[in-house]
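Sharing a chain and its predicted structure for anyone who wants a worked example. Both blocks are below, sequence first, C-alpha cells second.
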Amino acid sequence: MNNFGIAIHGGAGTILKSLMTPEKEAAYQTALAQALDTGYELLEQGKTALEAVEAAIVVLEDCPLFNAGRGAVYNANGQHEMDASIMDGKTLDAGAIAAVRNLKNPIKLAIKVMEHSDHVLLIGEGAKEFADQFEISFESDAYFHDALRYEQWQEIKGTEKFQLDHSKSGKKNLGTVGAVALDQHGNLAAGTSTGGMTNKKFGRVGDSPIIGSGTYANNATCAISCTGSGEYLMRAVTAYDVSCRMAYKGLSLKDACNEAIMDRLTELGGDGGLVAIDHQGDIQMPYNSEGMYRASRNARERIIAIY
C-alpha cells in the first residue's frame, strides 16, 4: 500500500504573521518538521499508524512551543494538568486520560489505558495510580516551566478569567497537539494531547481526551484530531461528526471536514480546526481561525504551514 501518510497539528487560533518573529516562525516549522518526519519514517518502515501517531505526538509534547507535555499552560493553582487520547481505527479501541499532573508524555499513558485496561478514560489521581504499573515518566514542576506560559498566567491569575493558549489582546488562540495516520496495512489511527486552558479551574476538561469530540478513528471512514475551543468541539462532537458525514451522507473527506468546521462549528461560534486522513490516504487540514500549526506528508507531497 503506497498511499500511507500522516498529518499533525500544533494548535489553531489567532496566529498572525505580523506578531511572529522570523526566529520563532523558524522554530515552529522545525518542530513541526521533526514530528512529521518522525512519524512518517515509521510508516515507511511498515510500522503501524498507532506507532506513528504516538511518536509524532511525543515529539510535540517534548517541545515547549506547544501547549502539551513540556509546554503545558498553568492552571489556576499554578499547576500543569494534561489530557490526551488515542484511537485505533481498525478495532475502534481507544484510551484517554484527563487532569493528570507532572506527566511527561500524556499520550503514552493514554495508550496504556487503551491496551491494558477495560476502560477508555481515566482521570486525575486514579490515572496516576494506574500509571504506576508501567514505566511512565513523570517530571517535577520545574520541567514544565516556560516563561511565556508563566507570563500568560500571571496576567489573569486570581481572576475569574481563563484563556486559551497564546491569547493576545483578548483574542482566542488555541493550543493542542495531535496526529492522524494511515499505515501500509490500511489501518487508521488518531491521537490528541493538550495542557488545556490557562487559569482553568474546577478540573475543567476539554475535547482532547473525549473520544468523538477531539479524537476519532475508524478504518471505514477517517481519522481525526481536533484543536480549538473545546466546549464547542464537544457540543458539535466534531471528530465523530466528520466520520458520520462520510458514512451516512457519502461525503468525501474534504466535504465532510468543511461542513463540520466551516459550517457546524462556525455556526455554534467555535474557533478551531482539525487534521484528517481517510482510508484512501486523502489528507485535509481545515480551520476557521487565522492560522493553525500543521503539517502533512505522504508519497506525493510534504507540507508544513502556519497561516
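Comments welcome. DSSP finds nine helices and twelve strands in the chain.
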